Amino acid sequence: MQVGRDKRDSRWDTHREQRRVQLVGSAIAAIRRQGAGIGMDEIAAAAGTSKTVVYRHFGDRTGLYTAVCESVAGVLLAEVRRATADVLSDPGRGPRSAVAAGVDAYLRLIEIDPELYRFVVHRPLLAQGHGGRRGAGTPAGTPAPDPVNDLVTVIGDEVAAAIGGYLRPAGADASSTVRIWGHAIVGLVRGAADDWLARPDGTTRGQLTVHLTDLAWSGLSGLASHVQEVQP
Predict the structure, then answer these.
(1) How far apart are CA 68 and CA 147, in angstroms?
(2) To which H or E segment does residue 169 belong?
(3) What are the φ and ψ backbone dihedral angles of 142, each rounded to 5 degrees?
(4) Any idea which residues the entry calls the DNA-binding region (predicted)?
């Protein structure tokens, strides 16, 4: 027989979720101010609380890191989707423009929030140690989720869908081929973006977008003998 939760207990769920959102927002603001190398003490102080309270809501530093990544991923994914959808809804534009729009959306986050990008991609908080405790109900030995890889997977699939809407590889494995193309482009962009952030040389976001789009599209268009354009 299933016993329902006491209303006095369940009514706090919304409050706890709101508090988690507030703590994530405080952490993001602190990262922007103090840099990607910020520690748990500084994050807790920025939120006006203690590490114990932060760990109570997130379990450990990995839990907080994951929550921040999920927040950033939601924004970035929405921007990439919006940018590519706007292009794909215009019959006068094609897959090359969609790739360019997706690349630019990715680079825009780095340009606007470089410290937040470093925090998410390079994981400095996790390198500081494994303080705190695991979240309630998490079995010992359970591997932590990798939100960065999850985000890369989703964006790669988005790019693949944009390409696949216009180009169709020959052969029975067409969907796998398009997915490979999409993820290869994301890897290309991420590698160049990391270098752009680490070694600034005056290259603008617009210039980098053009360079990466030219390189990516040269590869795709070079497959012309094996690919047919999908007619709308």
Answers:
(1) 9
(2) strand 167-169
(3) -70, 125
(4) 39-58
C-alpha torsion angle, residues 179, 157, 208, 79 (rounded to 10): 170
Could you say which DSSP state residue 149 is in?
Answer: H
In this prediction, residue 140 carries a pLDDT of 45
Q: Which of 70, 17, 67 is nearest to 43 (CA)?
A: 67
C-alpha dihedral, 151 to 155 to 157 to 159, nearest 10°: -170
Weakly modelled stretches of the chain, pLDDT under 70:
1-12, 127-145, 147, 165-172, 221-232
Cα-to-chain-centroid distance, residue 228: 31
The predicted-structure confidence for 9-24, as pLDDT tens digits, reads as follows: 566 678 888 999 999 9
Retrieve residue 215's tokens: 């390189």
- The whole-number pLDDT of residue 149 equals 75
* C-alpha to C-alpha distance for 31 and 71, rounded to whole angstroms: 13
- The pLDDT of residue 91: 85
- Residue 132's φ and ψ, nearest 5 degrees, are 90, -165
